[in-house]
Amino acid sequence: MQVYPLSLTASPPAPLGLACAAALGNFDGVHRGHQAVVEAAVQEARRLGAAPAAIVFEPHPRQHFQPQAAPFRLQSAGQRARALAALGVETLVEVRFEAALAALSADAFAQDILARAIGVRHLCIGLDFRYGQGRAGDAVSLERQGAALGFGVTVVDAVDDSDHPGDKISSSAIRAALQAGDVTLAARLLGRPWAIEGAVIPGQQRGRTIDFPTANIALGAYLRPALGVYAIRARLPDGREIPGVANIGVRPTVAGADAEPLLEAHLFDVAEDLYGQTLDVALIAFLRPEQRFESFAALTAQIAQDAAAARALLSAGP
């Protein structure tokens, strides 16, 4: 996939001339609703003989308008790019969301960014897509602007949760499911298990003393899911997928009350040094909430039980 950064800091940005058919949106999570928009763009690209593309915003607009908001991202930019590529996207335009972009009117966004800077031939958007200063632009206005500027627009209907017709799939619904510990629901809405990606950082190494070494990953901008213990599958940089068990939390038994939540993953039957490696840790099942134990010995016994439960669950099937 070819990635093109685009920023209004270089004003006006140099025309990319991509002549693409593109899906346009934030696409945080690339959930099943997003996938429908992207698939429509790929089909339109084939019809036009154009490059299949996606146009996204980085950082997420919420980070610009609410810089003090709690972390909420469902994906890193890299995870999003890989998910889009897996759907057939060959060209990714990452539009820098900054003050200059936020101040653009809907008409200016369509003319200066979509038509002139990128050179779109066709756009696919979700029914609820909004754009331009004050979110003034919508599907109706984009269709009108596209007709005037020479590009077509396809508006894709929202996708329902397959188990609950009428419940629309959204990033907000996925965040709510994860915060409730319902990773099964989150996976159904996403179309895959939710995963946290990050570099392994040094920890306190207490796990090594009880034969449960952990790969520790900071949560960074990711949404904080329900704190507790999860059965996981971790993908290593070499492509191996390793089952394991992980705690996401503040480690109340061994850490201070103001500790930052951390992902601590124990990968089954792996003895190698993972420091500095980037892992993609998928949450498969929620086993129990995080809790404080009266002693390190009690914590150790519970860790062994958690590991056994995760092994049994993961060996039973997908």
Describe, in plain words, how this protein is organized in 3D.
- There is one protein chain.
- With 318 residues, the protein is of the alpha/beta class.
- It is built from nine helices and 14 strands.
- The protein has helices at residues 32-48, 61-65, 77-86, 99-102, 106-118, 139-149, 171-179, 183-190, 296-315, and strands spanning 2-6, 20-24, 51-58, 91-96, 122-126, 152-156, 160-161, 164-168, 195-199, 215-218, 228-235, 241-249, 262-267, 278-289.
- The strands form three sheets. The chain has a six-stranded parallel β-sheet with strand order 1-4-3-2-5-6, sandwiched between helices. The protein has a six-stranded antiparallel β-sheet with strand order 9-14-11-12-13-10.
- The radius of gyration is 22 Å and the shape is elongated.
Tally the helices: what do you get? Answer: 9
The strand order across the widest sheet is 1-4-3-2-5-6
Topology pattern, helix = H, strand = E:
EEHEHHEHHEHEEEHHEEEEEEH
> Oligomeric status of the shown chains?
single chain
